[in-house]
Amino acid sequence: LTNMLSTVQRRVVQTSSKSYIKCFSSSSIASEKYDVAVVGGGPGGYVAAIKAGQLGLKTVCIESRGSLGGTCLNVGCIPSKALLHSTHLFEHASKDFSHHGINIGSVSVDLKKMMDNKGKAVKGLTGGIEMLLKKNKVDYVKGFGKLSGANSISVDLNAG
């Protein structure tokens, strides 16, 4: 990542024109100029965007999912581990507690609460990344970004 960012910094420093971002929605077109535009808010993208912001570059991070952190944070590793932790607790309560003199009666699963707990964990982490972007003065655009020229990116904004 450091080598990649150094390359990005050199490119930005050597170019005289700024990246040009066009955002499209059903009702408007907005344009802004940035020193660095990062397409993708996964673990590589948001870290690179934050570092560029820390270096004083006007930066935007574009993410189509609508929440930062990539697959692992949003639908993969983190949600799976949250649910796995809940099921381990269920197993301990139903099988192991009585061996320690803890009697709790019948144990049941409330799937809605379990899923809400998983969602809370994901939301807390993705919200933390958004806060880091704001803290480092990185703009966050929710939409699908694609190269549209040598120094331009077009973004189809997410609905809402």
So what's the oligomer here? Answer: single chain
Poorly predicted sequence stretches spanning 5 or more consecutive residues: 1-16
DSSP E strands, number: 6
Largest sheet, if any?
6 strands, mixed
**Nearest-integer average pLDDT:** 84
Question: Globular, elongated, flat, extended or rod-shaped: what is the shape?
Answer: elongated
The helicity comes to: 40-55%
Termini distance? 33 Å
Strand content: 15-25%
Task: Please list the strands of the largest sheet in the order they lie side by side.
Answer: 2-1-6-5-4-3
Q: Supply the number of helical segments.
A: 5
Q: N-to-C SSE series? A: HEEEHEHHHEE
Secondary-structure-based class equals: alpha/beta
Question: What value does the Rg take, in angstroms?
Answer: 21 Å
